[in-house]
Specification:
By secondary structure, the chain is mainly alpha-helical. It has one domain. The chain is about 60% helix and about 10% strand.
Length: about 150
Amino acid sequence: MARRLKALSVGEALAACGGIVFLATMLLAWFAQRSAGGTAGQGRGEPAVAVNAWEAFGLLAAFLAIAASLAIVHAGMRIAARPSPALLAPVGGLLTGVLAVVGSAVVLGNSACCDLFYTASAPRFGMYAGLVAAVVSCLGGILVLRGR
């Protein structure tokens, strides 16, 4: 088994590990959302609700999970000594990084100023851990593309 793990390049290992951690962090709280509506931002007095990546991103969460899984599948196929498309790990790693950053920026920047009922989102640990894992997976994808 150890010899088979050595078959992975550094980039493939980073992309796969980043993908595994990213999938795990999708279940953690990524945002705390509270209803901040009312006149002049007085709010409705409701407590903040923790929202994980699946709840916050909707359909984008499915694409994130698929993208993160590509690098994991590639590493699994290489460990099992099966042929794997060369671009599976880099595409998975790069897509995970880009989609996670864009999705987080959209959720955080999606509150209106003065509507009667808008939702204010604040980042939580899951978002930071997920973004770090996405960046690691993205870096792994870049290393694979560079042949490392």
